[in-house]
Design brief:
The chain is α/β, with parallel strands linked by helices and about 475 residues long. It has a single domain, classed as 3-Layer(aba) Sandwich (Alkaline Phosphatase, subunit A). It contains 15 helices and 19 strands. The chain has helices at about 15-25, 30-35, 40-45, 90-95, 135-140, 155-165, 175-185, 230-235, 245-265, 270-285, 290, 300-305, 310-325, 350-370, 435-445; strands at about 5-10, 10-15, 70-75, 120-125, 130, 145-150, 195, 220-225, 330, 375-380, 385, 395-400, 400-410, 415, 420, 425-430, 430-435, 455, 460. Strands 3, 6, 7, 8, 9, 10, 13, 14 and 17 form a 9-stranded mixed beta sheet that branches. β4 and β5 form a beta hairpin. α2 (about 30-35) crosses α9, α9 runs antiparallel to α10 and α13 (about 310-325) runs parallel beside α14 (about 350-370). The radius of gyration is 25 Å and the shape is globular. The termini are far apart.
Length: about 475
Protein backbone atom coordinates (compact mmCIF):
# COMPACT_ATOMS: atom_id res chain seq x y z
CA UNK A 1 0.00 0.00 0.00
CA UNK A 2 1.33 3.43 -0.96
CA UNK A 3 0.82 6.37 1.35
CA UNK A 4 0.95 10.11 0.74
CA UNK A 5 1.23 13.00 3.16
CA UNK A 6 -1.63 15.51 3.08
CA UNK A 7 -1.56 18.59 5.23
CA UNK A 8 -4.94 19.48 6.70
CA UNK A 9 -5.59 21.84 9.61
CA UNK A 10 -1.83 21.83 10.19
CA UNK A 11 -1.87 18.11 11.05
CA UNK A 12 -0.38 15.27 9.06
CA UNK A 13 -2.59 12.37 8.14
CA UNK A 14 -1.75 9.13 6.37
CA UNK A 15 -4.35 7.94 3.88
CA UNK A 16 -4.28 5.53 1.01
CA UNK A 17 -3.84 6.90 -2.48
CA UNK A 18 -7.33 5.78 -3.52
CA UNK A 19 -8.90 7.43 -0.46
CA UNK A 20 -6.92 10.59 -1.07
CA UNK A 21 -8.14 10.79 -4.68
CA UNK A 22 -11.74 10.44 -3.58
CA UNK A 23 -11.32 13.14 -0.95
CA UNK A 24 -9.62 15.65 -3.21
CA UNK A 25 -12.05 17.68 -5.28
CA UNK A 26 -15.02 15.41 -4.39
CA UNK A 27 -13.38 12.52 -6.17
CA UNK A 28 -12.44 14.40 -9.34
CA UNK A 29 -9.13 12.57 -9.54
CA UNK A 30 -10.79 9.16 -9.41
CA UNK A 31 -13.33 10.28 -11.97
CA UNK A 32 -10.51 11.42 -14.23
CA UNK A 33 -8.88 7.99 -13.95
CA UNK A 34 -12.21 6.28 -14.63
CA UNK A 35 -12.62 8.45 -17.70
CA UNK A 36 -9.26 7.32 -19.06
CA UNK A 37 -10.06 3.65 -18.44
CA UNK A 38 -13.44 3.99 -20.17
CA UNK A 39 -12.02 6.07 -22.99
CA UNK A 40 -12.24 3.49 -25.76
CA UNK A 41 -15.72 2.34 -24.77
CA UNK A 42 -17.40 5.72 -24.45
CA UNK A 43 -15.29 8.67 -25.52
CA UNK A 44 -13.97 7.44 -28.87
CA UNK A 45 -17.40 7.46 -30.49
CA UNK A 46 -20.10 9.21 -28.47
CA UNK A 47 -23.56 8.73 -29.89
CA UNK A 48 -25.59 11.51 -31.52
CA UNK A 49 -26.39 14.17 -28.98
CA UNK A 50 -24.08 12.63 -26.36
CA UNK A 51 -21.41 15.00 -25.13
CA UNK A 52 -17.98 13.54 -24.46
CA UNK A 53 -15.87 14.65 -21.51
CA UNK A 54 -12.82 14.33 -23.76
CA UNK A 55 -12.61 17.40 -26.03
CA UNK A 56 -10.50 15.49 -28.57
CA UNK A 57 -12.92 12.59 -28.95
CA UNK A 58 -14.03 11.98 -32.53
CA UNK A 59 -17.29 13.74 -33.35
CA UNK A 60 -19.64 12.96 -36.23
CA UNK A 61 -19.58 15.45 -39.14
CA UNK A 62 -22.68 17.47 -40.01
CA UNK A 63 -23.10 15.52 -43.25
CA UNK A 64 -21.27 12.85 -45.22
CA UNK A 65 -17.70 14.10 -45.73
CA UNK A 66 -15.56 13.65 -48.82
CA UNK A 67 -12.37 14.08 -46.80
CA UNK A 68 -11.44 12.92 -43.30
CA UNK A 69 -8.12 14.67 -42.97
CA UNK A 70 -6.08 17.46 -44.58
CA UNK A 71 -2.42 18.02 -45.41
CA UNK A 72 -1.60 21.67 -46.05
CA UNK A 73 1.67 22.12 -47.94
CA UNK A 74 2.45 25.75 -47.16
CA UNK A 75 4.87 27.58 -49.46
CA UNK A 76 5.34 30.48 -47.06
CA UNK A 77 6.66 33.62 -48.69
CA UNK A 78 4.38 33.62 -51.73
CA UNK A 79 5.20 31.63 -54.89
CA UNK A 80 4.63 33.32 -58.23
CA UNK A 81 1.52 32.15 -60.06
CA UNK A 82 2.84 33.21 -63.49
CA UNK A 83 5.95 31.06 -63.00
CA UNK A 84 4.23 27.95 -61.64
CA UNK A 85 0.59 27.19 -62.53
CA UNK A 86 -0.78 30.20 -64.47
CA UNK A 87 1.06 30.68 -67.80
CA UNK A 88 0.73 34.07 -69.48
CA UNK A 89 2.01 34.31 -73.08
CA UNK A 90 1.25 38.04 -73.06
CA UNK A 91 4.12 38.53 -70.62
CA UNK A 92 6.49 37.36 -73.31
CA UNK A 93 4.84 39.50 -75.99
CA UNK A 94 4.91 42.69 -73.92
CA UNK A 95 8.06 41.99 -71.90
CA UNK A 96 9.43 45.23 -70.44
CA UNK A 97 6.34 47.31 -71.19
CA UNK A 98 4.02 48.87 -68.62
CA UNK A 99 0.35 48.16 -69.44
CA UNK A 100 -2.58 49.83 -67.61
CA UNK A 101 -3.32 46.63 -65.67
CA UNK A 102 0.07 46.94 -64.01
CA UNK A 103 -1.15 50.03 -62.18
CA UNK A 104 -2.96 47.84 -59.66
CA UNK A 105 -1.54 48.58 -56.23
CA UNK A 106 1.77 46.91 -55.44
CA UNK A 107 3.60 47.07 -52.15
CA UNK A 108 6.84 48.37 -53.66
CA UNK A 109 7.87 50.29 -56.76
CA UNK A 110 7.75 48.00 -59.78
CA UNK A 111 8.77 48.23 -63.41
CA UNK A 112 7.50 46.77 -66.66
CA UNK A 113 6.06 43.36 -67.40
CA UNK A 114 8.55 40.52 -67.02
CA UNK A 115 8.24 37.26 -68.89
CA UNK A 116 8.68 34.03 -67.01
CA UNK A 117 12.12 32.43 -67.26
CA UNK A 118 10.40 29.03 -67.07
CA UNK A 119 8.76 27.06 -69.86
CA UNK A 120 5.17 25.80 -69.53
CA UNK A 121 3.87 22.57 -71.08
CA UNK A 122 0.57 20.70 -71.10
CA UNK A 123 0.44 17.54 -69.00
CA UNK A 124 -1.79 14.52 -68.53
CA UNK A 125 -5.02 13.76 -70.31
CA UNK A 126 -6.41 16.99 -68.89
CA UNK A 127 -3.70 19.08 -70.56
CA UNK A 128 -3.11 21.30 -67.53
CA UNK A 129 -0.25 23.69 -68.20
CA UNK A 130 2.40 23.48 -65.52
CA UNK A 131 5.82 25.09 -65.29
CA UNK A 132 8.98 23.12 -65.93
CA UNK A 133 9.73 23.77 -62.24
CA UNK A 134 7.66 20.69 -61.36
CA UNK A 135 8.63 17.72 -63.55
CA UNK A 136 7.53 15.09 -61.01
CA UNK A 137 4.29 16.79 -60.03
CA UNK A 138 3.45 17.38 -63.70
CA UNK A 139 3.10 13.64 -64.16
CA UNK A 140 0.28 13.77 -61.56
CA UNK A 141 -1.53 16.61 -63.36
CA UNK A 142 -4.74 14.65 -63.64
CA UNK A 143 -4.94 14.52 -59.84
CA UNK A 144 -4.71 18.29 -59.43
CA UNK A 145 -7.43 20.91 -59.20
CA UNK A 146 -5.65 24.22 -59.85
CA UNK A 147 -7.49 27.34 -58.69
CA UNK A 148 -6.05 30.24 -60.70
CA UNK A 149 -8.37 32.94 -59.36
CA UNK A 150 -7.42 33.19 -55.70
CA UNK A 151 -7.28 36.61 -54.06
CA UNK A 152 -6.83 37.96 -50.56
CA UNK A 153 -6.98 41.26 -48.70
CA UNK A 154 -3.52 42.68 -48.11
CA UNK A 155 -0.12 42.35 -49.89
CA UNK A 156 1.89 41.87 -46.68
CA UNK A 157 3.18 38.61 -45.29
CA UNK A 158 1.89 38.84 -41.73
CA UNK A 159 -1.80 39.60 -42.44
CA UNK A 160 -1.89 37.31 -45.47
CA UNK A 161 -0.34 34.38 -43.58
CA UNK A 162 -2.93 34.89 -40.86
CA UNK A 163 -5.73 35.12 -43.41
CA UNK A 164 -4.71 31.86 -45.06
CA UNK A 165 -4.41 30.01 -41.77
CA UNK A 166 -7.17 31.61 -39.67
CA UNK A 167 -9.46 33.63 -41.94
CA UNK A 168 -8.53 36.97 -40.38
CA UNK A 169 -5.70 39.44 -41.02
CA UNK A 170 -5.10 40.06 -37.31
CA UNK A 171 -3.87 37.46 -34.76
CA UNK A 172 -7.24 37.29 -33.03
CA UNK A 173 -8.88 34.15 -34.47
CA UNK A 174 -8.35 30.39 -34.18
CA UNK A 175 -6.51 28.62 -36.97
CA UNK A 176 -8.30 26.34 -39.42
CA UNK A 177 -6.71 23.29 -37.79
CA UNK A 178 -8.06 24.36 -34.41
CA UNK A 179 -11.55 24.80 -35.90
CA UNK A 180 -11.37 21.32 -37.43
CA UNK A 181 -10.33 19.78 -34.12
CA UNK A 182 -13.12 21.65 -32.33
CA UNK A 183 -15.68 20.48 -34.88
CA UNK A 184 -14.54 16.93 -35.58
CA UNK A 185 -12.13 15.85 -32.86
CA UNK A 186 -9.41 13.38 -33.75
CA UNK A 187 -9.28 9.68 -34.57
CA UNK A 188 -6.18 9.06 -32.44
CA UNK A 189 -6.13 10.55 -28.96
CA UNK A 190 -2.54 9.40 -28.40
CA UNK A 191 -1.29 12.05 -30.83
CA UNK A 192 -2.11 15.75 -31.24
CA UNK A 193 -4.97 16.13 -33.68
CA UNK A 194 -3.33 19.15 -35.36
CA UNK A 195 0.39 19.00 -36.09
CA UNK A 196 2.54 21.73 -37.67
CA UNK A 197 5.87 20.73 -39.22
CA UNK A 198 8.22 23.65 -39.73
CA UNK A 199 12.04 23.75 -39.69
CA UNK A 200 12.25 26.99 -37.75
CA UNK A 201 9.59 29.67 -37.41
CA UNK A 202 7.65 31.35 -40.22
CA UNK A 203 6.81 35.04 -40.04
CA UNK A 204 4.15 35.59 -37.30
CA UNK A 205 4.98 32.17 -35.83
CA UNK A 206 2.69 30.39 -33.33
CA UNK A 207 -0.29 32.66 -34.08
CA UNK A 208 -0.59 30.79 -37.38
CA UNK A 209 -1.58 27.58 -35.60
CA UNK A 210 -3.00 29.07 -32.39
CA UNK A 211 -6.34 28.31 -30.78
CA UNK A 212 -7.09 31.88 -29.62
CA UNK A 213 -10.48 31.81 -27.87
CA UNK A 214 -11.09 28.11 -28.50
CA UNK A 215 -10.01 25.83 -25.63
CA UNK A 216 -6.24 25.39 -25.50
CA UNK A 217 -6.35 21.66 -26.29
CA UNK A 218 -7.19 22.60 -29.90
CA UNK A 219 -3.93 24.50 -30.51
CA UNK A 220 -1.60 23.07 -33.12
CA UNK A 221 1.48 21.20 -31.92
CA UNK A 222 4.56 22.54 -33.70
CA UNK A 223 7.35 20.10 -34.52
CA UNK A 224 10.70 21.41 -35.73
CA UNK A 225 11.49 18.98 -38.54
CA UNK A 226 14.90 20.43 -39.35
CA UNK A 227 16.28 17.11 -38.11
CA UNK A 228 13.87 14.19 -37.95
CA UNK A 229 15.50 12.35 -35.08
CA UNK A 230 12.72 10.79 -32.97
CA UNK A 231 14.78 11.30 -29.82
CA UNK A 232 15.02 15.07 -30.36
CA UNK A 233 11.86 15.93 -32.33
CA UNK A 234 9.83 15.37 -29.16
CA UNK A 235 12.20 15.57 -26.21
CA UNK A 236 11.60 14.34 -22.68
CA UNK A 237 8.43 12.47 -23.63
CA UNK A 238 9.53 9.39 -21.68
CA UNK A 239 10.69 9.23 -18.07
CA UNK A 240 13.48 6.69 -17.81
CA UNK A 241 13.56 6.88 -14.01
CA UNK A 242 10.12 5.45 -13.22
CA UNK A 243 7.61 3.09 -14.80
CA UNK A 244 4.59 4.24 -16.78
CA UNK A 245 2.38 2.93 -13.97
CA UNK A 246 4.15 5.18 -11.48
CA UNK A 247 3.87 8.10 -13.91
CA UNK A 248 0.15 7.43 -14.14
CA UNK A 249 -0.14 7.56 -10.36
CA UNK A 250 1.76 10.84 -10.21
CA UNK A 251 -0.38 12.32 -12.95
CA UNK A 252 -3.57 11.21 -11.21
CA UNK A 253 -2.46 12.99 -8.06
CA UNK A 254 -1.50 16.15 -9.92
CA UNK A 255 -4.72 16.04 -11.92
CA UNK A 256 -6.81 15.74 -8.77
CA UNK A 257 -5.08 18.70 -7.15
CA UNK A 258 -5.29 20.78 -10.33
CA UNK A 259 -8.98 20.06 -10.79
CA UNK A 260 -9.71 21.10 -7.22
CA UNK A 261 -7.75 24.29 -7.88
CA UNK A 262 -9.61 24.71 -11.18
CA UNK A 263 -13.05 24.34 -9.58
CA UNK A 264 -12.24 27.24 -7.27
CA UNK A 265 -11.26 29.49 -10.17
CA UNK A 266 -13.99 29.39 -12.76
CA UNK A 267 -14.12 25.79 -13.96
CA UNK A 268 -13.68 24.70 -17.55
CA UNK A 269 -13.04 28.12 -19.08
CA UNK A 270 -9.91 28.61 -16.99
CA UNK A 271 -6.56 28.19 -18.85
CA UNK A 272 -5.59 25.65 -16.21
CA UNK A 273 -7.96 23.20 -17.89
CA UNK A 274 -5.77 23.33 -21.01
CA UNK A 275 -2.70 22.57 -18.91
CA UNK A 276 -4.42 19.56 -17.37
CA UNK A 277 -5.40 18.26 -20.80
CA UNK A 278 -1.92 18.88 -22.23
CA UNK A 279 -0.34 16.76 -19.47
CA UNK A 280 -2.79 13.97 -20.21
CA UNK A 281 -1.91 14.23 -23.91
CA UNK A 282 1.81 14.12 -23.13
CA UNK A 283 1.32 10.93 -21.12
CA UNK A 284 -0.67 9.27 -23.90
CA UNK A 285 1.86 10.36 -26.53
CA UNK A 286 4.51 8.11 -25.00
CA UNK A 287 2.96 5.15 -26.81
CA UNK A 288 3.10 6.58 -30.34
CA UNK A 289 4.91 9.90 -30.64
CA UNK A 290 8.45 8.66 -31.06
CA UNK A 291 7.31 5.89 -33.38
CA UNK A 292 5.46 8.19 -35.78
CA UNK A 293 8.47 10.48 -36.23
CA UNK A 294 10.94 7.63 -36.71
CA UNK A 295 11.23 7.75 -40.50
CA UNK A 296 13.77 4.92 -40.39
CA UNK A 297 10.84 2.57 -39.92
CA UNK A 298 9.98 3.16 -43.57
CA UNK A 299 11.45 1.00 -46.32
CA UNK A 300 14.43 2.31 -48.23
CA UNK A 301 12.29 2.36 -51.37
CA UNK A 302 9.83 4.70 -49.67
CA UNK A 303 12.61 6.96 -48.38
CA UNK A 304 14.13 7.11 -51.86
CA UNK A 305 10.77 7.95 -53.41
CA UNK A 306 10.37 11.03 -51.21
CA UNK A 307 13.98 12.11 -51.63
CA UNK A 308 16.13 13.98 -49.16
CA UNK A 309 15.74 17.25 -47.32
CA UNK A 310 13.65 18.88 -44.64
CA UNK A 311 10.56 19.24 -46.79
CA UNK A 312 10.83 15.63 -47.98
CA UNK A 313 10.99 14.47 -44.37
CA UNK A 314 8.02 16.71 -43.57
CA UNK A 315 5.91 15.17 -46.33
CA UNK A 316 6.75 11.63 -45.24
CA UNK A 317 6.01 12.48 -41.60
CA UNK A 318 2.71 14.03 -42.71
CA UNK A 319 1.70 10.77 -44.36
CA UNK A 320 2.64 8.82 -41.22
CA UNK A 321 0.61 11.23 -39.08
CA UNK A 322 -2.59 11.20 -41.13
CA UNK A 323 -2.29 7.44 -41.49
CA UNK A 324 -2.54 7.27 -37.69
CA UNK A 325 -5.63 9.46 -37.47
CA UNK A 326 -4.24 13.00 -37.10
CA UNK A 327 -6.89 15.40 -38.41
CA UNK A 328 -4.69 18.11 -39.93
CA UNK A 329 -1.00 18.42 -40.74
CA UNK A 330 0.61 21.62 -42.00
CA UNK A 331 4.02 21.34 -43.63
CA UNK A 332 5.71 24.73 -43.94
CA UNK A 333 8.40 24.97 -46.57
CA UNK A 334 10.90 26.56 -44.23
CA UNK A 335 11.98 29.19 -41.77
CA UNK A 336 10.94 32.80 -42.37
CA UNK A 337 9.47 33.51 -45.82
CA UNK A 338 11.63 31.52 -48.26
CA UNK A 339 9.47 31.89 -51.41
CA UNK A 340 9.72 35.70 -51.13
CA UNK A 341 11.88 36.22 -54.23
CA UNK A 342 12.05 40.00 -54.60
CA UNK A 343 15.54 39.98 -56.11
CA UNK A 344 15.46 37.14 -58.61
CA UNK A 345 12.44 35.02 -59.48
CA UNK A 346 14.78 32.41 -60.94
CA UNK A 347 15.47 31.45 -57.31
CA UNK A 348 12.10 29.69 -57.39
CA UNK A 349 13.94 26.84 -59.12
CA UNK A 350 15.80 25.71 -55.98
CA UNK A 351 12.68 25.79 -53.84
CA UNK A 352 10.58 23.99 -56.43
CA UNK A 353 13.23 21.29 -56.71
CA UNK A 354 13.03 20.73 -52.95
CA UNK A 355 9.24 20.19 -53.00
CA UNK A 356 8.53 18.63 -56.39
CA UNK A 357 9.63 15.03 -55.79
CA UNK A 358 8.33 14.81 -52.19
CA UNK A 359 4.86 16.05 -53.15
CA UNK A 360 4.63 13.62 -56.06
CA UNK A 361 5.72 10.80 -53.75
CA UNK A 362 3.17 11.87 -51.14
CA UNK A 363 0.34 11.62 -53.71
CA UNK A 364 1.55 8.19 -54.85
CA UNK A 365 2.03 6.97 -51.28
CA UNK A 366 -1.45 8.04 -50.19
CA UNK A 367 -2.91 6.28 -53.22
CA UNK A 368 -1.01 3.06 -52.50
CA UNK A 369 -2.33 3.03 -48.93
CA UNK A 370 -5.93 3.79 -49.87
CA UNK A 371 -5.80 7.23 -48.23
CA UNK A 372 -5.82 9.58 -51.21
CA UNK A 373 -9.58 9.60 -51.78
CA UNK A 374 -10.33 10.89 -48.28
CA UNK A 375 -7.19 12.95 -47.65
CA UNK A 376 -7.35 16.53 -48.92
CA UNK A 377 -4.04 18.08 -50.01
CA UNK A 378 -3.75 21.88 -50.27
CA UNK A 379 -0.69 23.52 -51.87
CA UNK A 380 0.02 27.24 -52.01
CA UNK A 381 1.33 30.34 -50.29
CA UNK A 382 -0.26 33.33 -48.61
CA UNK A 383 -0.46 35.32 -51.87
CA UNK A 384 1.15 35.47 -55.32
CA UNK A 385 3.61 37.75 -57.04
CA UNK A 386 3.41 40.56 -59.58
CA UNK A 387 3.80 39.94 -63.32
CA UNK A 388 5.77 43.19 -63.40
CA UNK A 389 9.36 43.28 -62.30
CA UNK A 390 10.82 44.48 -59.04
CA UNK A 391 14.37 45.57 -59.63
CA UNK A 392 15.86 43.73 -62.57
CA UNK A 393 14.66 40.16 -62.09
CA UNK A 394 12.42 39.93 -59.00
CA UNK A 395 8.68 40.11 -58.36
CA UNK A 396 6.77 41.95 -55.65
CA UNK A 397 3.90 40.66 -53.50
CA UNK A 398 0.51 40.35 -55.20
CA UNK A 399 -2.76 39.79 -53.36
CA UNK A 400 -5.01 40.52 -56.37
CA UNK A 401 -4.59 37.15 -58.06
CA UNK A 402 -2.67 33.94 -57.39
CA UNK A 403 -2.88 30.15 -57.63
CA UNK A 404 -3.30 27.24 -55.24
CA UNK A 405 -4.08 23.63 -55.99
CA UNK A 406 -6.04 20.89 -54.26
CA UNK A 407 -5.87 17.13 -54.70
CA UNK A 408 -7.66 14.08 -53.29
CA UNK A 409 -10.35 14.44 -50.64
CA UNK A 410 -13.33 14.76 -52.98
CA UNK A 411 -12.09 17.43 -55.39
CA UNK A 412 -12.14 17.05 -59.16
CA UNK A 413 -8.72 16.21 -60.50
CA UNK A 414 -7.37 17.27 -63.86
CA UNK A 415 -8.98 20.69 -63.97
CA UNK A 416 -8.30 24.39 -63.60
CA UNK A 417 -10.80 26.78 -62.10
CA UNK A 418 -11.05 30.54 -62.53
CA UNK A 419 -8.64 32.86 -64.28
CA UNK A 420 -6.57 35.98 -63.85
CA UNK A 421 -6.35 38.72 -66.46
CA UNK A 422 -4.15 38.30 -69.54
CA UNK A 423 -1.06 39.37 -67.61
CA UNK A 424 -1.76 37.37 -64.44
CA UNK A 425 -2.20 40.35 -62.16
CA UNK A 426 -5.76 40.10 -60.84
CA UNK A 427 -8.42 37.40 -60.60
CA UNK A 428 -11.21 38.17 -63.08
CA UNK A 429 -13.16 34.93 -63.66
CA UNK A 430 -14.76 32.76 -60.95
CA UNK A 431 -12.91 34.65 -58.25
CA UNK A 432 -12.14 32.67 -55.09
CA UNK A 433 -11.35 34.51 -51.87
CA UNK A 434 -9.56 32.78 -49.02
CA UNK A 435 -12.89 32.72 -47.16
CA UNK A 436 -14.35 30.73 -50.09
CA UNK A 437 -11.42 28.32 -49.97
CA UNK A 438 -11.98 27.76 -46.25
CA UNK A 439 -15.72 27.28 -46.74
CA UNK A 440 -15.01 24.68 -49.42
CA UNK A 441 -12.46 22.82 -47.28
CA UNK A 442 -14.90 22.64 -44.37
CA UNK A 443 -17.62 21.41 -46.74
CA UNK A 444 -15.34 18.63 -47.99
CA UNK A 445 -14.74 17.68 -44.35
CA UNK A 446 -18.48 17.39 -43.75
CA UNK A 447 -18.99 20.77 -42.04
CA UNK A 448 -21.30 23.66 -42.89
CA UNK A 449 -19.01 26.65 -42.46
CA UNK A 450 -21.92 28.83 -41.32
CA UNK A 451 -22.87 26.41 -38.53
CA UNK A 452 -19.45 25.67 -37.05
CA UNK A 453 -19.49 28.46 -34.48
CA UNK A 454 -18.09 29.26 -31.05
CA UNK A 455 -19.60 31.86 -28.77
CA UNK A 456 -17.05 34.28 -27.40
CA UNK A 457 -17.29 37.82 -26.04
CA UNK A 458 -21.02 38.03 -26.75
CA UNK A 459 -21.09 36.83 -30.37
CA UNK A 460 -20.81 33.68 -32.44
CA UNK A 461 -17.54 33.39 -34.34
CA UNK A 462 -16.67 31.09 -37.26
CA UNK A 463 -13.65 30.44 -39.47
CA UNK A 464 -15.16 32.33 -42.41
CA UNK A 465 -16.48 35.20 -40.25
CA UNK A 466 -19.52 36.57 -42.16
CA UNK A 467 -18.16 35.61 -45.58
CA UNK A 468 -17.44 32.55 -47.68
CA UNK A 469 -19.17 30.44 -50.31
CA UNK A 470 -18.57 26.80 -51.17
CA UNK A 471 -17.02 26.38 -54.63
CA UNK A 472 -19.17 23.45 -55.70
CA UNK A 473 -17.72 23.39 -59.23
CA UNK A 474 -14.45 21.86 -58.02
CA UNK A 475 -16.09 19.08 -55.99
CA UNK A 476 -16.22 15.66 -57.66
Amino acid sequence: MQYHHIKKNHDLMFVSRREMLHRFGTGLGALGLAGLVANDAVHANPGPGVASSNPLAAKPPMFAPRAKRIIHLFMNGGPSQVDTFDPKPMLTKYDGQRPPAADLKTERKTGGLMKSPFRFDKHGQSGIEISELFPHLSRRADDLCVIRSMHTNIPNHEPSLLMMTSGETQPTRPSMGSWLLYGLGTENENLPGFVVLCPGKPVVGPALWGNRFLPGIYQGAQINNSKMDPQTVIRDINNSAITSEAQREQLDLLKAMNEMHLAERGGRDNPLESRIQSMEMAFRMQTEAQDVFDLNRETQATRDAYGKGQFADGCLAARRLVERGVRMVQVFYGDGQPWDDHDNIASHADKAKAVDQPIAALIDDLKARGLFEDTLILWGGEFGRTPVSEGAKGRDHNNHGFSVWLAGGGVRGGMTYGATDEFGFAAVENKVHVHDLHATILHLMGIDHEKLTYRYSGRDFRLTDVHGRVVHDIIA
